[in-house]
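SAMPLE LOG
Freezer: B-3
Tube label: C17
Construct: single chain, 81 aa
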Amino acid sequence: MTSVNVTDLRQHLPDYLKQVQQGEEIIITLHGKSIARLIPEQPNNKRELALKRLEALRGKMLVGDILAPLNAEWTGDADHL
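STRUCTURE (predicted):
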């Protein structure tokens, strides 16, 4: 969570809005006291929330059989030949 004073926020508003758009929360301060928070827009429905979670996991997951030994040869076709 980032904290920024009003003057700095005015001077660099596009940069801070990009941070909020990427999911970061920003606290706005005036004379050292927090007066407001900028938070990312929350999707309203469950479908959008699920899609965002799946998008965040993209490229981080491994697909495969986690129970099979690593060097085992696959013989699933042997019964059908």
